[in-house]
Write a structure and sequence with these properties.
24 strands; nine-stranded antiparallel sheet
C-alpha cells in the first residue's frame, strides 16, 4: 500500500499533546476519586499519571460536567462525600446531585500530585437567574485557582425543548438561549472570587444535536459574548442508545470514511471557528454512543480503542483544539476504567477498558519535538477518506514550528479473527520524513487478538490486562502483544501492521 506524505501540512490547526482529555459525569465523581482528599484511589492516580507523563509540558485536560451538572445543586457547606445523589426518581442518564467545595479540593490535589491538570467546569443554565450559578463559579475559581481552565455555561441547550426543560415554551429558540446566556453570565461579575468574567474563561454554546453552529455563532452569540468567551464548545455522538435500538454495528466504526464524515458534522460552523474571528473550538464530550454506549460494541478494541483514536485525530485535523472522551458510572460500556465494587475509594482491583488505551496513544502520537505543538493531516491512504471498503487509514503529524514530519500513524482495521486476513504492508518513500536525516525509525503498535477483544490489549509491548493498580507491565509471554520494531528507512521502507492493530512510526 503506497503512502504519500505531503512535504507541507495542508492544515494550520495546531494542537498540543494533551488534545484528548477526559470528561467525567458529575454524579459519579466519587466512584473514581473517592469521597474526599483522604480517599483518592492510588489506582486512579496511576492511570492519570501515565497520561500526564505523556503530555509533555501541557496539563492533563479534565472536564467535570454532563447532563447532571445542569440539573444539580452546589451546597457551599457540604463536606464528605463531595458528591451525593439526590433521592427520588431520576432519569438514568441525568441523575442530579448536591456537591460542595470538597470536589474542588480533591481536583486541586489531583492536579498538584499529577504535576498539572486543567479543568472544564460546568455551570447550570436551567435556572438562569439562580444565585447558585455565581456561588458555584466563585467557589470553583477559588478552589482550583490556575487549574481552572474554563466554565461551560449550560449543557446541550438545543435539547431543552425535547427534554422538557422549558415547559412554558413550545419551542426554545436561539434567541431564548442568547437571552438566558446573557442573564446567567451577568451574575458571574459578582462572585466570591470577584468578577470572573474578567478572566474571559467562559465556554459555550455546548450544543449537540439540533442547532447549526454557524447559525448560533452568526445569529448573535459571537456578537454578544465574544469578549467573555474562551472556547466555542460542542458535544456529539455518532449514534444514541437511549431507546433500546441502535443504527450502527461495529463495522461502521472501523470504516475510516465514516470517521471523516462524522468529524465534518457542523462543517460550516467549524469554518467560522477557524477563520480567526472566533475563540478556539473544543469537543467537550464524545464517545461511541450516547446514553452510556453499547455493550459488545463500545467496550471492544475496535471501537473503544481504534475508533476513539481515529476520531480524535480526525477532529484535530479539521480544526478542534481539544476533545474530551466521556465516562460515567460503574457498568457503563464506554467507560475508560472500572473501579472495584464496594465503597468509593476502597480497596480492590481496577479493570482497564479499551478506551483508556486511546488516551495513552494520542499524546505520544502528538508529541512535539519543538514543544510548539503539532499539525495533523489525514493521508487518505488507499482512498480511505471516501472508500468504505478500505480497511486502512493513516495520519502524518507535523511539527508546528518547522513543518517537519514527526510521527506517522497507520491503521489496519482488518479483523484478525476472520480467516484470510493478513498484515497490511505500507510502503513509505525516503522523503516521508521531509528529507530529515532520520534513518532508523521505531514502530510502536497498539494491538489486540481481534477487533472484539475487551481486555488483552497492548501498546508498545506493554499492557494493563489483568493489572489491578493501573500500572503498565511488560508481558513477553502473551502472543497478542506486538513488540516494537526498528526499521531502516534510509531509502524508504515497508512498515508491517498486523490486522486489528495500528502502528506509529517515531
Amino acid at each position: 500500500i503506497q503512502v504519500s506524505v505531503p512535504s507541507q501540512p495542508s492544515s494550520t490547526n495546531v494542537v498540543k499533546p494533551n488534545f484528548l482529555g477526559i470528561s467525567f459525569e458529575l454524579s459519579f465523581m466519587t466512584e473514581y476519586f473517592g469521597n474526599d482528599t483522604s480517599t483518592v484511589p492510588s489506582a486512579m492516580m496511576n492511570y492519570l499519571s501515565a497520561l500526564r507523563s505523556r503530555t509533555q509540558d501541557t496539563p492533563l485536560l479534565v472536564r467535570v460536567g454532563g447532563n447532571s451538572m445542569d440539573s444539580s445543586w452546589y451546597v457551599p457547606d457540604q463536606g464528605s462525600p463531595m458528591v451525593s445523589l439526590i433521592g427520588g426518581p431520576a432519569n438514568a442518564n441525568n441523575q442530579p446531585v448536591t456537591y460542595g467545595p470538597m470536589l474542588w479540593a480533591v481536583m486541586d490535589k489531583v492536579a498538584s500530585d499529577l504535576g498539572g491538570a486543567n479543568y472544564l467546569v460546568g455551570l447550570s443554565l436551567l435556572q438562569p437567574n439562580s444565585s447558585n450559578i455565581s456561588t458555584l463559579a466563585g467557589a470553583a475559581q477559588q478552589g482550583l485557582g490556575d487549574n481552572l481552565d474554563s466554565f461551560l455555561l449550560g449543557n446541550e441547550p438545543d435539547l431543552y425543548t425535547s427534554h422538557g426543560n422549558r415547559p412554558s415554551l413550545k419551542n426554545y429558540t436561539l434567541q431564548d438561549y442568547i437571552d438566558e446566556f446573557r442573564i446567567a453570565s451577568s451574575h458571574l461579575s459578582d462572585t466570591s472570587a470577584g468578577n470572573v468574567l474578567d478572566k474571559h474563561n467562559l465556554g459555550g454554546p455546548t450544543i449537540c444535536c439540533n442547532w447549526n453552529l454557524d447559525a448560533v455563532l452568526n445569529g448573535g452569540y459571537l456578537a454578544n459574548f465574544r469578549n467573555i468567551l474562551k472556547y466555542i464548545s460542542m458535544q456529539h455522538y455518532p449514534q444514541n442508545n437511549c431507546f433500546g435500538s441502535i443504527e450502527y454495528q461495529t463495522p461502521y466504526y472501523v470504516q475510516h470514511a465514516n470517521v471523516v464524515s462524522l468529524a465534518s458534522w457542523q462543517q460550516s460552523g467549524i469554518a467560522v471557528t477557524t477563520s480567526g474571528s472566533s475563540p478556539p473550538l473544543i469537543m467537550s464530550e464524545f464517545n461511541s454512543a450516547s446514553c452510556g454506549g453499547i455493550p459488545g460494541i463500545s467496550d471492544t478494541f475496535a471501537v473503544g480503542s481504534l475508533w476513539t483514536i481515529n476520531y480524535a485525530l480526525q477532529l484535530a485535523s479539521v480544526g478542534y483544539s481539544a476533545a474530551y472522551v466521556h465516562t460515567r458510572e460503574r457498568g457503563v460500556s464506554y467507560n475508560l476504567v472500572a473501579p472495584p465494587d464496594g465503597p468509593n475509594g476502597g480497596p480492590g482491583a481496577w479493570t482497564t477498558n479499551p478506551p483508556y488505551y486511546a488516551l495513552l496513544v494520542v499524546p505520544e502520537v502528538l508529541h512535539s519535538n519543538s514543544n510548539n505543538g503539532s499539525i495533523v493531516v489525514d493521508l487518505n491512504i488507499d482512498s480511505s477518506r471516501t472508500d468504505t471498503n478500505s480497511t486502512v487509514g493513516g495520519y502524518a503529524i507535523y511539527d508546528a514550528k518547522d513543518a517537519s514530519v514527526q510521527q506517522i500513524m497507520l491503521f489496519n482495521f482488518a479483523n484478525s479473527s476472520v480467516s484470510g486476513t493478513s498484515d497490511a504492508m505500507f510502503s513509505l518513500p525516503s522523503s516521508a520524513f521531509n528529507g530529515s536525516e532520520r534513518q532508523n525509525v521505531t514502530v510502536k503498535y497498539l494491538a489486540a487478538a481481534h477487533l472484539e477483544e475487551k481486555f488483552n490489549i497492548s501498546w508498545g509491548g506493554q499492557t494493563l490486562a489483568g493489572v489491578g493498580d493501573g500500572k503498565l507491565i511488560t508481558d513477553d509471554s502473551a502472543s497478542w502483544i506486538v513488540p516494537n520494531k526498528q526499521v531502516d528507512c534510509t531509502s524508504g521502507c515497508t512498515i508491517e501492521v498486523p490486522p486489528s492493530a495500528l502502528g506509529v512510526i517515531f
